[in-house]
Amino acid sequence: MFETEKTIDYYDLNAIHFAKTTASVEFEDMQKRFLKKLPGQAVILDFGCGSGRDTKYFLSQGFRVEAVDGSKELCRIASEYTGISVRHMLFQELDDNSRYDGIWACSSILHLPIDELERVMWKMTEALKEKGIIYTSFKYGTFAGQRSGRYFTDMTEKTFAEFLKKIEELMIEELWVTPDVRPGRGDEKWLNMILRKI
Known about the structure:
- Helices cover 35% and strands 29% of the residues.
- By secondary structure, the protein is an alpha/beta fold.
- The protein has a single domain, classed as Rossmann fold (3-Layer(aba) Sandwich), CATH 3.40.50.
- The longest helix is centred in the middle third of the chain and has 14 residues, at 114-127.
- It is globular, with a radius of gyration of 15 Å.
């Protein structure tokens, strides 16, 4: 949990700057790719919502959205931005059963060390309805550790496939690599996945 605390401290201290630099990033292609796999009136959990960018988009498309984040400052900013109450919660505190049609974990659970990530992925699976989906993304690579004041677990196609063998109820439905969409960061790569509960 020490790594989690350091990462949350980073986001609390840098919340305003982080929100400003991410809220306006164009991400509609990824959002639509996720939404088209959901039924109408689906219930979505934005799991580590950051600025609230994706929550706001999902709400605008008529979906029911719950949003959480581990940073109290980002919860406050995202609540103002989205118009809904964003709940302050650590990933490890997820404790729902068959509640969500989809979980959106965009650039969020990558901050967990691998053992914590496994436990949280099990909790996410439990929280999904039958045949529910997860979108998640990781920086592309094999690094694990502190980077720029935060903890990161990076993934490749191979390392994630090996990791997912531990979570028997999830399968990879789609997997693709993209450049970073933020200005000046195009040389950074991301591993994106849509996982389905089976």
